[in-house]
Amino acid sequence: MLETTHRKGAETRERLLAAAESAVLAKGFAATSIDELIAAVGITKSGFFYHFKDKADLAKSMMLRYLEHDRAVLDDIFRRGDELNEDPLHGFLVGLKLFAEMLGNLPEAHPGCLAASFCYQDQLFNREIRELNAEGVLAWRTRFRERLDVIAFRYPPRSEVDLEAMADMAATLVEGGLILGRMLGDVTILPRQIVLYRDFIRSVFLPA
Amino acid sequence: MLETTHRKGAETRERLLAAAESAVLAKGFAATSIDELIAAVGITKSGFFYHFKDKADLAKSMMLRYLEHDRAVLDDIFRRGDELNEDPLHGFLVGLKLFAEMLGNLPEAHPGCLAASFCYQDQLFNREIRELNAEGVLAWRTRFRERLDVIAFRYPPRSEVDLEAMADMAATLVEGGLILGRMLGDVTILPRQIVLYRDFIRSVFLPA
DNA sequence: CGATCAACTGGACTCGTGGTACAGTAGGTC
DNA sequence: GACCTACTGTACCACGAGTCCAGTTGATCG
Question: What is the mean pLDDT of the segment spanning B45-65?
Fold first, then answer.
């Protein structure tokens, strides 16, 4: 009965991580106090240190949680794109459309990326956390690069293209789009960038 | 003789701002202590508060300095692009090439954008600073949008394009490219994204 | 029924940091 | 000789992060 017994701990831990994530996205890691997290969750400081050995441990747990969530969402979106169209290019284009739609319907008023927040404060963290961050980006690169390779084989572009940069462009536009969206308080910026990315992909592999 | 006399103050202030900028890009604003800044510059705490009334005043001054520098660099790059080619599209494409080259030759090992750093810590700042940040993005949008409007008039694209998003894409790729470059420790990522942006612009207005 | 363990509570303590206050001073300027 | 700029020096306070450790509660297991 591991599922039902003693599960209160995992739930409290999850609530701490969720509170920490929204606070870090709003104020940064250093400005996020343990006191505010325990106040939000309703436990004491000692309770916090029962779950995390120190603040660095919290940071690492936040990243692991974030990366896992990120991976799951992306897997789901592009798997559905593939299901809707057998062709690698058109399946990818459908996936990008779904992706843009999802980004436009995010519930948060000011969505953000934890990895981006951490990368502008990376001197606060140890090597382990920075490596987790790099792994996350490489996962995006690999994921998109594999698709582009398959697509480029079936639809050879007429001129040389930097497929790696094209794969990175997805993550680049997401990170940049989140930043611009936050700065201007405009949640349409990010999905529109993804739509442009989709246009770009199509124009490279399907010239008019 | 305002230029030569009493100029030591402005110089110290500038050194404080420069030290603050590199510290903030490495650790974030909250984790940047006044003590480390005065140690780096070689003055006392009282000296710091002679130049800035409090930390918020420092933040505002940092943003103003950053935006001004940003504006000057961009003005210079694209003015040179225009000088090298009269045509609005080709002048812009030359400017983008110069821009990519400049971004590839940045002296810092881990360049970053102060505005991006601030936007992931915006709850630390007052409305005034957030507005400065938004103005900075809008300046990029306006700058690129004006060019794209002129180009679209001379080279009408065959299908509808979201010119605003295309203008924002420049800043989006710079912000995102800086983040990916930092995460992977790869300074080539950003210039390659700008090259792709250039390819995209060309393919929209000059279909093969 | 008693032992065990997860999930905490409570309290006391240290240290760094932001920020204030204020008095003093070196050196160039008018 | 008065004045101003650009500081130094010292003392002080409040707050919050983070550490440590001892104790407690309530469910579970043999």
Answer: 91
CATH architecture of structural domain A55-205: Orthogonal Bundle (1.10)
Pure H helices in B105-188 = 114-119, 127-154, 163-184
CATH topology of domain B1-52: Arc Repressor Mutant, subunit A (1.10.10)
Question: CA dist A9 to A4, A5, A36, Å?
Answer: 11, 10, 19
Set of chain A residues whose Cβ sits within 8 Å of the Cβ of B174:
176
State the Cα–Cα distance between residues A74 and A148, nearest whole angstrom: 16
Closest residue by Cα to the C1' atom of nucleotide D7? B47
Q: Find the distance separating the first CA and the last CA of chain B, reported in whole Å.
A: 60
Tens-digit pLDDT profile for residues A52-99: 988 989 999 999 999 999 999 999 999 999 899 999 999 999 999 999
Gap from B41 CA to C17 C1', in Å? 18
Alpha helices, H only, A28-119: 34-41, 45-51, 55-84, 88-104, 114-119
Task: Write down the CATH number for the domain with range B54-205.
Answer: 1.10.357.10
Neighbours of A54 (CB within 10 A): 10
